[in-house]
Amino acid sequence: MGPNGSGKTTLLSALATELNSKGSVEVLGRSTDGDLQEIRRRMAFAGDRPVHLEELSGIENAQLFADLYGLEREHAKSVLDNLFARFGLSKVKNFPVSSYSHGMKKKLQLVEGFVHSPELMILDEPTLGLDPVSLEAFIDFIVQVKEGCVVMATNDPLVATKVATSVVFLMDGSVVAKGSPEELLDQLDEEVRVEIWTSGPEQKITSLESGGIVARVFPDKIVANMPADVAPLPELMKTILRAGFEISRVEIARPDLSDVFLLLTGRSLTEESVAARDQLT
Amino acid sequence: MKAEWRIAIRNKRLLFFNIVVPIVFIVPLILGGAPGVHVTAILVVLFALFSTFGSSIPLIRDKESGLLQRYVMTGVNPGFLLLQRTLVFTLIDFLQLLPAQALIITVTGGNFGEISLFSTMVFLALIAGNLFGVLAASASRSIAEGALFSSLLGLMMIHFAGVFRVAVPGSFASIVEPWIPFRPLYLSVRTVVLGAEPVMGSDLAPPLFFTLVLIMGTYFRGKVFLGVTNR
To answer: pTM for the whole thing?
Structure first.
């Protein structure tokens, strides 16, 4: 997990043997200085942009990848039938991919990646664009992948908490923290996240301080972490009103991994990293 | 690759144009009383450019979209992948040009031996043309560039094959000419259209060697040709 430009895709590309760079990475017990084809046959990589032969149907695209992985036709057929059913694509498997939505293309990419039961699956933002039903199916599937390992870049705290055994926070190309979701969430003690939805004239301030609580100001809401008894909340709301905001709704939620990231780095997962900003300027 | 066949058959519009356009092009040419040398040259240009474009454009399209990258990431040998696709492109080109070949043979006449030799030379030229197309694709960063490089490379090879002029003995052109893979095609079209001497075994050996070098280069440097990964 990490904001845009933190190095997630670069790291995944290096693991996937896709990156042209100095040095080497050990993947599946093999160095990327050696036989890349052997490593690639044992893993699968699904980038953040699903690409297919649009003129062909979903099943034909998937069959093409089964052929490239060297699967026998009958075996591939049964595996693909199962995977298409799991990802809810059975009804459209004979339709041309050009008629698929972005989410369906992402799911098809996952089907193609899992067709040869890889030992390692590298996924870059696999849940972006998935509808809630498909997201649940994806989470169930990843949790059930017993025989393989999945390395995934995501900024969805829900997905990371549900599927990850280990989470790594990246910032500007460096590891900020790592651990299981539970270990990382423990760093927040008994806190809750309070989201105060606001409206009114645009404010230029980015944070508000009240009773020892620092709240971050976003375009449509103000977010603060505080003890579970929410004792500082009334005072914070007064401060918000005094600053000229109008409050429309208050939500109290259990904190997630995005709050841990904020606590450790002082930055939001939705922000661009310094490196990314530097590149842009 | 089956995918290429499927695309070639599914894309009815492209299939129609690829079959009909050469015929539409050839009919007025060979029935219009044009000088034989012109007919010969134009037919060679048609067959040669058909093949260089046939492979380069789909390859650049797949390279641009990232599809080639996905294929390579399955662990397939990039060189093998390219050669496989080149063979399929060649077969598709050959089949799409069969009606045009039949038309030429029908109008010009010729015995079974000449027809077989002509078709074989067309096939060999299409293999070379498709390999040149791969070469053009590897140097291109867009479909427009690919079209430009394919046509330039194709025309250059046609020129060096001696289609547009007779090389002065002892000149550089006369040394290069026998090695160019489009040369046997040119000689066989000359046979069919002008009744010139048929292609001999000695005419075939150097171009076949050149084609073999292209095949080996494509295979061993496939990764660089694809430009999808430098490792």
So the answer is: 0.78
Domain of B18, in residue numbers: 2-226
Where a domain ends, among A183, A201, A220?
Answer: A183
Contact A55 B10 (CB under 8 A): yes
Q: What tens-digit pLDDT sequence spans chain B (231 residues)?
A: 676 777 767 777 778 888 888 999 888 888 888 888 999 999 999 999 989 988 888 888 888 888 888 888 898 888 888 898 899 899 999 999 999 998 888 888 877 888 888 999 999 999 999 999 999 998 888 999 999 999 999 999 999 999 998 888 999 999 999 999 999 999 999 998 888 888 888 889 999 999 999 999 888 877 666 655 544
Split into its structural domains, chain A has a count of 2
Contact present, B119 and B185 (Cβ < 8 Å): no
Q: Which residues constitute the domain of residue A208?
A: 187-280
Q: Strands across the sheet with A120-124, in order?
A: A43-46, A120-124, A149-153
CB within 8 Å: A20 and B75: no
Interface test with B, best of A21, A38, A55, A95 (most B CBs within 10 A): A55
Identify the burial level of A167 via C-beta atoms within 10 angstroms of its C-beta, where 0-12 means exposed, 13-18 middle and 19 or more buried. buried
Helices (H) and strands (E) in chain A, counts: 11, 12
Q: Which amino acid is at A60?
A: E
Residues in B touching A37 (Cβ below 8 Å):
75-77
Of B70, B82, B9, nearest in space to A61 by CA: B70
In-domain check, residue A201: yes
Neighbour tally for A14: CB within 10 Å = 19
Q: Are residues A244 and A178 in the same domain?
A: no
Report residue B99 as tokens. 């009606």
Number of structural domains found in chain B: 1
**Last residue of some domain: A151, A183, A215?**
A183
Nearest Cα residue to A165 out of A176, A149, A154: A149
First-residue to last-residue Cα distance in chain A: 24
Q: Which of B200, B198, B157 is nearest to B179 (CA)?
A: B157
**A246 and A149 within one domain:** no
In a domain, A1, yes or no: no
Distance CA(B124)–CA(A147), nearest Å, equals 48
A30 bridge partner residues = A27
Q: Is residue B38 one of the residues assigned to a domain?
A: yes
A207, A216 contact by CB (below 8 A): yes
Q: DSSP states of A114-161 as a string?
A: HTT--SEEEEESTTTT--HHHHHHHHHHHHH--SSEEEEE---HHHHH
A35 — contact with chain B (CB < 8 Å)?
Answer: no
Does residue B105 fall inside a structural domain?
Answer: yes
Return the amino acid letter for B144: A
For residue B5, the chain A residue with the least C-alpha distance is A56
